[in-house]
Design goal:
By secondary structure, the chain is α+β, with helices and mostly antiparallel strands. It is about 50% helix and about 15% strand. The strands form 4 sheets. Strands 17, 18, 19, 20, 21, 22 and 23 form a 7-stranded mixed sheet that branches.
């Protein structure tokens, strides 16, 4: 088989290229083609040849004809003048079309920026193609789960014993009270390997990239620098951090990070060398000790598949060290996929949304664009009735169909250009800021590359220009002058295609409106849904030691309004103390809350059977457990009381069962939980139960007393009633988004109906005039005018409503574990809303017609 460049690309080159330049350009591109084919393969060579041909398509290389150039410019100038004249003459219709397209374009721009940002997370790291996030697979009763945590000792061993590994960076999160002068706050501390700045391209505003090579150095983010130092230079300043266990370390600030770019999926506030961990931990670090994340950088030319067979020994080392957490497999996730997969990786340090969200807003954007294009096509075809004689006269005077098409396409391009400008302004000033209110970070109005932005705007202009303008231009331009002058050529309500377009608009409108009401009904359901316990009147203070627990206990006894108080090592909604428990060979994952005897009842957990802990019991009764009903279900017990299970070599006996509870929202299913007693020296959370109307006053009293109890520790308090705020804010934002989309859909649908109806009523003015003369009343005229649109609306509802239901049903089942069963309410509300808006649109126009004097109509006819 002969090796030749793509024939169509070569023909395209010969078609546009100036003869004086053709031989040189063609020779150079073919020479590059054969060289690339030998070095990179035929497929790559052909792709690059096509790109070269397109790249040389520039003004200086085109064939030129002075006559053609002059005539083309004159004609184009004429098209522009006539186009602007027609747009200004029919300014109401022009505004409808421009505004409708602008809404859709603004939405499309906003969605594209968001999707582009999501797919380019962490793309600024120059070594991204060689960096992999290490995750592990764990199988439990729910199937296989992906976890970001990995054995702490794995990273150094990979680097030391495998030559293809160039660098390894571990990240381990911790908490501590950070103090500078009189400023004390509880912060998230991240232990990292000093080579982090060799692997990643995080930029430093000040300091050296080897800042973490010294054990007592630290690097802070720009936000932390501003929080503690304001305008003061933090470099060289010494701060102290008090970690859990009352161990305090002093660190010198050796670097300050630049503000993170929007496409940074994982971020750090405070970085300290990982070597500090061994001094701060009492226990020996073995193979069961886990990091928060592990990143592996390979040498060039190597693949993680070369390490797959050698990872088995690390699985064995870890699994032999622990019975709670059995790893089945390690997986190397490319850095550019890490954020995209974060939704399925538990405890992932990367920010990334669920693909269902990107797909949904993509579909919404497409629906709005389709609505706007159908709207324009319908109005353009209907409005052409006023321009039939212009079209016929042009053809009689020597114009051909091509000239007519050029005229209509030019007008369409002008209109689309205005829509693009207005849509861009709407996106920049309204949609992107509104979208940012739903995101945990600020999305900038920018693209990942200038070239992508140009391609997007150019492509969008071509798509909406062709989609909205092609059919009207080619359809109208085919009319024959004889038919037009004889009056045989008619446009308007009798045109089947116009009715189909209007039906498609209303189908899409019904689909989005029904979807909106379904989603809103579910949203309100989740906003009112029970958490599994009553969070009102509960607030929790983070404590460091037994002394603080004892002092807060004394304080609570002195405040008459305090109904109950308790303490725990892990607290509901603070973090997931996930572990593994076993009974007769059945292993399940469960949260383990070590607590004081009265913790379950103080937290308002509802007892289903058995009993709570006896408040006189202490940590010596450490073999007793209270479990929740999900724990019972996972274990498969019919009679849970007095059942036993094993955790960490200790056998526990079940004395009570409480109702299960949600942790952070209703996106995920309930996690099994069990409660056991522990010693006060292990308490990290102190919880007050008080009357809801006095909670903030008592909080002020506790805050005031705290500075005497723990003057060197910050007052870190959480109100339990705010634990779901993140979920509720996201839920409300989604409801608002669906509401805005439905509003746009209704507006676009009614705008199309308004434009089409206006022209159709004008077409039937003579008919209405005759009917009024013959005695037809206002009601009869309204019935006649509404008849065809009523059927269109009914058909559109029965097609669009089920589609909206199916779309939202799929989305809700992806977003929530137990969405509300859909009722008839969304369908009733949607048909009522659409009936009212369409009725107002239609009736308003028809009432204006019925007021017209028949004599004036018939005289003009």
């Amino acid at each position: 088989m002969n090796l030749i460049p793509p024939k169509w690309a070569d023909r395209f080159l010969r078609w546009y290229c100036h003869p004086d330049l053709l031989e040189e350009i063609q020779g150079d591109t073919e020479e590059l083609f054969y060289r690339r084919a030998a070095e990179e393969g035929e497929k790559k060579a052909k792709r690059k040849y096509i790109w070269d041909v397109i790249r040389f398509f520039r003004w200086s290389n085109l064939k030129k004809s002075n006559k053609l150039k002059i005539n083309s410019l004159i004609m184009f100038n004429s098209y522009l003048k006539i186009g602007f004249r027609n747009l200004s003459k029919n300014w109401v219709i022009s505004i409808i079309n421009i505004f409708g397209l602008a809404l859709a374009v603004g939405s499309a721009i906003t969605v594209f920026i968001f999707v582009d940002l999501q797919h380019n997370m962490d793309s600024f790291h120059s070594k991204k193609d060689r960096i992999y996030a290490l995750i592990n697979h764990v199988t439990d009763e729910n199937g296989t789960e992906f976890w970001a945590t990995n054995p702490f000792l794995l990273g150094p061993d990979l680097k030391d014993n495998h030559t293809i590994v160039e660098n390894v960076v571990r990240a381990k999160f911790d908490y501590g009270n950070m103090r500078y002068e009189n400023k004390v706050f509880r912060e998230t501390i991240t232990y990292v390997d000093p080579s982090i700045f060799n692997m990643f391209d995080f930029q430093l505003a000040s300091g050296a990239r080897n800042a973490l090579s010294e054990k007592q150095n630290m690097v802070i983010s720009s936000l932390i620098a501003e929080k503690y130092f304001g305008e003061e230079d933090p470099i060289g300043q010494v701060i102290s951090i008090k970690f859990n266990g009352n161990r305090t370390q002093s660190y010198t600030i050796a670097g300050v990070l630049e503000k993170y770019s929007a496409n940074t999926s994982f971020r750090f506030d405070i970085l300290v060398p990982v070597s500090n961990i061994r001094e701060l931990r009492d226990e020996n670090i073995a193979w069961d000790w886990l990091t928060s994340a592990t990143f592996v950088q390979l040498n060039e030319g190597h693949s993680p598949s070369e390490l797959d067979a050698q990872m088995d020994k690390y699985i064995t080392l870890h699994n032999e060290a622990t019975s709670d957490w059995k790893i089945e497999k390690f997986e190397f996730v490319p850095l550019d996929q890490f954020a995209l997969r974060s939704y399925e990786i538990r405890r992932s340090i990367a920010m990334g949304g669920h693909p269902a969200g990107r797909l949904t807003i993509g579909i919404i954007s497409f629906i709005l664009l389709a609505l706007a294009c159908f709207n324009y096509m319908n109005i353009a075809v209907a409005s052409a009735a006023k321009r039939l004689k212009e079209i016929a006269l042009r053809k009689v005077m020597g114009g051909n169909r091509t000239h007519i098409v050029h005229q209509f396409m030019t007008e369409n391009v002008i209109l689309c250009a205005f829509s693009m400008i207005l849509g861009t302004l709407l996106s920049y000033y309204l949609f992107v800021p509104g979208f940012n209110m739903m995101l945990p970070f600020a999305m900038p109005f920018t693209f990942s590359s200038f070239r992508l932005g140009v391609l997007f705007f150019g492509g969008l202009l071509v798509v909406i220009g062709l989609a909205s303008g092609s059919y009207p231009a080619f359809y109208i331009s085919k009319f024959q002058p004889v038919s037009i002058f004889k009056g045989n050529q008619k446009l308007g309500g009798k045109n089947l295609f116009s009715k189909v377009l209007l039906s498609m608009q209303l189908i899409l409108a019904f689909m989005t409106v029904v979807a909106c009401f379904v989603f809103s009904e579910n949203g309100r359901h989740f906003n009112a849904k029970d958490w599994g316990y009553n969070p009102n009147g509960l607030f929790t203070v983070v404590i460091q030691n037994e002394h603080q627990y004892n002092e807060l206990s004394k304080l609570a006894q002195q405040i008459p309004a305090v109904e109950m108080f308790t303490a725990s090592n892990a607290h509901i909604n603070s973090y997931d103390p996930l572990t593994t428990v076993e009974n007769l060979g059945v292993e399940i994952k469960s949260n383990h809350y070590r607590c004081a005897p009265n913790y379950p009842q103080t937290m308002n957990l509802r007892l289903m059977e058995g009993k709570y802990f006896d408040e006189r019991q202490n940590a010596e009764a450490s073999n007793l457990a209270v479990i929740d009903d999900v724990f019972v279900k996972k274990m498969g017990w019919l009679e849970p009381l007095n059942q036993t299970f094993t955790h960490d070599s200790t056998t526990f006996t079940v004395i009570g069962v409480v109702e299960s509870f949600y942790l952070y929202g209703f996106h995920t299913e309930k996690t099994p939980a069990f409660f056991t007693l522990t010693d006060p020296k292990d308490f990290l959370y102190f919880t007050f139960k008080v009357p809801e109307d006095q909670m903030f006053d008592i909080d002020d009293q506790v805050r005031e007393a705290w500075f005497d109890i723990a003057p060197n520790d910050p007052f870190n308090r959480k109100f339990q009633m705010f634990a779901f705020d993140g979920f509720y804010q996201s839920n409300d934002a989604n409801i608002a988004l669906m509401g805005v989309v439905s509003f746009f859909a209704i507006i676009l649908g009614c705008m199309g109906l308004f434009g089409l109806l206006s022209f159709n009523l004008q077409r039937r003015m003579k008919e209405f005039g005759v009917r009024k003369v013959l005695g037809a009343g206002r009601g009869t005229l309204i019935k006649l005018a509404n008849k065809e649109y009523l059927w269109i609306m009914v058909v559109s509802f029965f097609l669009g409503a089920p589609l909206g239901y199916l779309l939202m049903d799929k989305l809700l089942n992806l977003m929530y574990q137990d969405p509300l069963q859909i009722t008839a309410i969304p369908f009733i509300l949607s048909i009522a809303l659409m009936a009212i808006t369409v009725g107002l649109t239609v009736t308003g126009q028809i009432l204006n017609v019925t007021k017209v004097n028949p004599a004036e109509i018939l005289r003009s006819e």
